[in-house]
Amino acid sequence: MSKFTREDIMRLAQEEDVRYIRLQFTDLLGVIKNVEIPSSQLPKALDNKMMFDGSSIEGFVRIEESDMYLVPDLDTWVVFPWGNEHGKVARLICDIYNPDGTPFEGDPRYILKRALKEAEEMGYTAFNVGPEPEFFLFKLDEKGEPTLDLNDQGGYFDFAPLDLGENCRRDIVLTLEKMGFEIEASHHEVAPGQHEIDFKYANALHAADQILTFKLVVKTIAHKHGLHATFMPKPLYGVAGSGMHANQSLFRGNQNVFFDESDELGLSETAKHYLAGILLHARGFTAITNPLVNSYKRLVPGYEAPCYVAWSAKNRSPLIRIPSSRGVSTRIEVRSPDPATNPYLALAVMLKAGLDGIKNKLAAPPAIDRNIYVMNEEEREENGISSLPATLKEAIECLKADPVICEALGEHALIHFIEAKEIEWDMFRTRVHAWEREQYMSTY
């Protein structure tokens, strides 16, 4: 059931004196795009008659088939609490449709909806996700360009005066709350200049919408504080990178199907099958959850990011951790994704991996409760622990080799995603980097 009708939106726009509406969607790589219309065009938008040129969007379509329609999801109506000098601006997140009225196969939001439909057909009414996105704050120079100067020297859970980002972070939280977010925690992270804001879990589609809204708010408010917020996974060498842990659980009505009080760990058979599916397909979905060349600088031992395919209820080095809450809060936390991922695609592939585990009743391997970072390769092999891909190139090859993850994306998105990422890898591979000059210029 929608919480807003067409009439509600028209009335709210008038009551709030909204002058402009951004019709928002994302490209294949998770970059927010929007078509801004004056409020006089709102009725046309609500009648699903707004067209745009799909050929100009990364991973969409060719010139010959470029006409596409924006179909607003009325539940995503929100008025931005900033930029009111020329009248208020609101936004609606849109689904992309073809001219013949069918959903566009390459729309990331549709790809997630398709995975959710599969879960529904298996009897699950909700796939709940609690994301934990991290980001860095850097100072801007006099031209407004980002520098590599951090705005603080704080560490994990530090507070002012060490954490100079505190005012900015508080401002971000207040803005998010005005926009309907329920913030659970906000704190300084491990690295200087690094922050985390956690919001309440929600059904996956809403959670993915929220992640993108969150990024927009963080960047906008940071800029007002003379700072640049980046969701780049590893902007600095030698300190922890930014992750986006994804807490996930499946529900039937009000019942969390991951919980079983008779089990020693409080985990149901369904939860263990789901977990086994995530472990089986982790190497296959890493190109989606960690989509940049830079993502693989974070997935290395020693900086709290997981690089080994294993699970534990006790220790934080594996890919999957089981947080201690039980009952309705029973969940698994997948720790590899980073905030550069397209959230719709990331949640779709993780859900699909978990559902594959449930369908095939996959058995979860034994939990690894030791610190995997201190094991040698032989010990890891003995324990059946494989590694996540070490480069974007390896991750692309793992994606191509995993039919379940390929199916989750669908042919259109798969082809365009791989093409974009192979170009990115090639640009990186052929570029001469500063490190090479430092290492070799004088010696050779």
Commentary on this structure:
It contains 12 helices and 19 strands. Helix content is 35%, strand content 22%. With 444 residues, the protein is of the alpha+beta class. Strands 7, 8, 9, 10, 11, 12, 13, 14, 16, 17 and 18 form an 11-stranded mixed β-sheet that branches. Strands 1, 2, 3, 4, 5 and 6 form a 6-stranded mixed β-sheet that branches. The N and C termini lie far apart (68 Å). About 2% of the residues have low confidence.
* Proportion in helices: 25-40%
Using only CA atoms, what is the Rg?
22 Å
Structural class: alpha+beta
Q: Span between N and C termini?
A: 68 Å
| Uncertain residue segments | 155-163
Count helical runs. 12
Q: Can you summarize this structure?
A:
By secondary structure, the protein is of the alpha+beta class. The chain has helices spanning 6-15, 42-46, 108-121, 166-178, 204-224, 269-289, 295-298, 343-359, 377-382, 392-400, 403-430, 434-440, and strands spanning 18-26, 32-38, 50-53, 67-72, 78-79, 88-97, 126-140, 146-150, 183-188, 194-199, 202-203, 227-230, 244-252, 255-256, 308-309, 311-312, 320-321, 332-334, 386-387.
Keywords:
eleven-stranded mixed beta sheet, globular, 22% strand, single chain, six-stranded mixed beta sheet, 19 strands, alpha+beta, 444 residues
Produce the secondary structure layout.
Layout (H helix, E strand, L loop, with lengths): L5 H10 L2 E9 L5 E7 L3 H5 L3 E4 L13 E6 L5 E2 L8 E10 L10 H14 L4 E15 L5 E5 L15 H13 L4 E6 L5 E6 L2 E2 H21 L2 E4 L13 E9 L2 E2 L12 H21 L5 H4 L9 E2 L1 E2 L7 E2 L10 E3 L8 H17 L17 H6 L3 E2 L4 H9 L2 H28 L3 H7 L4
Parallel strand pairs: 1-6, 16-17
Antiparallel strand pairs: 1-2, 3-4, 4-6, 5-6, 7-8, 7-10, 7-11, 7-12, 7-13, 9-10, 13-14, 13-18, 15-19, 17-18
Helix pairs in contact: 3-8, 3-11, 4-5, 6-8, 6-10, 8-11, 10-11
